[in-house]
């Protein structure tokens, strides 16, 4: 059985979803809903209204590729209409919103997930490690951008974007840290530069997690070099994820894992999501519950940036 997916919003994220679905057997792209008439949806069926999409019995799930501000309302309506939902990142603007969506999905007996494809970089062995109070982590994310081109349209509106570079490009590796180390219990912001109020270009800070682990991090778009590196150091174990390459060293034994393209990881995510819809359960890795940690962290960063949610 192929799960029929409709995409809402056909910007850069929507096009990435479409490319993935057109290269799959387990899930198929049924159609696109894009309000802007100028945007070309190619040869894919185009819904004329949100109501038409919701009422179509052949659509099993909706991928909401919309800005985070206000997106939850569409998710609630989709779940209420009997559709499973896949949220683009960042998944929610508050923990309260996340809890409300989890309850709505449970009440509707529908699947809800997040497009956090980098979770599929984590080796299974890393989940069996006791990352405790002896663990120290370091995260550096440098994603260079032409800021005047990148922060335009909805991205320059903190009410819609929910922040800047950290919320949109630093979020993936911050989420990986939360998957391993638990939920953040404290956050200290050591530095911040902004494009405009509420839209960060650089965020520096430290985080303490529920496991007792601690991490320092920096996310920036101002450096010329691109780098994404997360390192976790335990007493006798080290996990490093650097530019997509994963390595796990335990008691002197080093195991390296093959690099997979972002496109292939999105395919893995959609396989997980589609399988969960068929089995009427929540996804194994792209589950929304696992987004609590990074949502809590981004909510604190947003508040520090003066965004009133």
TrEMBL record:
Domain GFO/IDH/MocA-like oxidoreductase intervals: 143-234
Coiled-coil positions: none
Gene3D superfamilies: Dihydrodipicolinate Reductase, domain 2, NAD(P)-binding Rossmann-like Domain
Entries under InterPro entries matching the protein: Gfo/Idh/MocA-like_OxRdtase_N, Gfo/Idh/MocA_Oxidoreductase, GFO_IDH_MocA-like_dom, NAD(P)-bd_dom_sf
Entry's Gene Ontology molecular function annotations: nucleotide binding
Domain Gfo/Idh/MocA-like oxidoreductase N-terminal stretches: 3-113
UniProt-recorded name of the protein: Gfo/Idh/MocA family oxidoreductase
């Amino acid at each position: 059985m192929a799960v029929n997916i409709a995409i809402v919003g056909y910007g850069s994220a929507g096009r990435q979803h479409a490319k993935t679905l057109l290269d799959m057997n387990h899930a198929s792209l049924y159609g696109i809903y894009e309000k802007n008439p100028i945007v070309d949806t190619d040869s894919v069926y185009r819904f004329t209204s949100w109501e038409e999409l919701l009422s179509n019995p052949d659509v099993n799930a909706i991928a909401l590729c919309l800005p985070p501000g206000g997106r939850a309302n569409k998710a609630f309506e989709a779940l209420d209409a009997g559709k499973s939902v896949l949220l683009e990142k960042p998944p929610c603007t508050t923990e309260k919103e996340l809890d409300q969506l989890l309850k709505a999905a449970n009440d509707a007996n529908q699947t809800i997930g997040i497009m956090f494809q980098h979770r599929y970089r984590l080796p299974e062995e890393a989940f069996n490690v006791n990352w405790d109070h002896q663990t120290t982590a370091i995260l550096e994310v440098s994603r260079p951008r032409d800021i005047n081109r990148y922060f335009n349209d909805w991205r320059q509106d903190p009410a819609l974007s929910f922040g800047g570079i950290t919320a949109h490009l630093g979020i993936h590796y911050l989420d990986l840290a939360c998957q391993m180390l638990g939920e953040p219990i404290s956050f200290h912001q050591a530095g911040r530069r902004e494009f405009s109020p509420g839209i960060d270009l650089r965020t520096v800070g430290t985080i303490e997690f529920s496991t007792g682990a601690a991490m320092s991090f920096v996310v920036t778009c101002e450096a010329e070099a691109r780098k994404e590196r997360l390192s976790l150091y335990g007493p006798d174990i080290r996990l490093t994820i650097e530019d997509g390459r994963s390595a796990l060293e335990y008691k002197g034994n080093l195991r390296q894992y093959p690099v997979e393209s972002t496109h292939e990881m999105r395919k893995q995510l959609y396989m997980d999501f589609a399988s969960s819809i068929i089995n009427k359960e929540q996804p194994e890795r792209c589950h929304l519950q696992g987004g609590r940690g990074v949502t809590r962290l981004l909510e604190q960063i947003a508040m520090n940036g003066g965004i009133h949610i």
